Amino acid sequence: RFVESDDILKSVRLTRDLYFTLAQPFGSKGDEAMTLETLINVEKFRTPEDPGEASISTLMGVEGGTLLRFGDSGVPGNQLQANGTRIDFTFETGKWYHIAMTIADGITKVYINGDLKATFPKGGSLSGGNPFLIGQSYSQGRGIQARLSETRVWSVARSAEEIKDNMYKVDAKSGGLLAYWRMNEWEPNEDGSGNVVRDETGHGYDAIGGSSDPQMIDTKWN
Question: Confidence class of residue 221 from pLDDT cuts 50, 70 and 90?
Fold first, then answer.
């Protein structure tokens, strides 16, 4: 069962126009094995009346490499598409979910609220011609309207037990942890290029949110 946390008091609200780029690319790190994970509360999914581009709401990843997103051609706006595969699970608005995707040895696994929901043959990459983005991919019509917390990228495939036991917080010095954005505070970037959620690992993969202020709001568990 998905248990609420008293440790997370704030979260970032992304809009379809506000998304995060990284201060530097991952390069080939994570290409042999990786885990992407986050806590997410989607406020509005794409619908036939509000399709955007192909009904896509992007969560995070690299277009053409490894990507988590909701909706697509043939995928309802409230279902997850993980690494190019539709996951048979229907999300609701206004509710918190933990999503994790691991990739290793050509196998992708997807967990929702700590439970394994899909396993399929597919590799992935965090490098390539497109950047790693949070809340956007490819075009402005693919943004997401959601709140995020505890967003992480690893260069290892986390086990089911590790995922279930550490949904709400991890040690920033954990082995294999590439980037860790707690999404509970932000600050202006020194060069004026936007507002920043710092990478807690110290590796320098700060998430830059553009010229608009990311909204920090109280986290209410549903």
Answer: very low
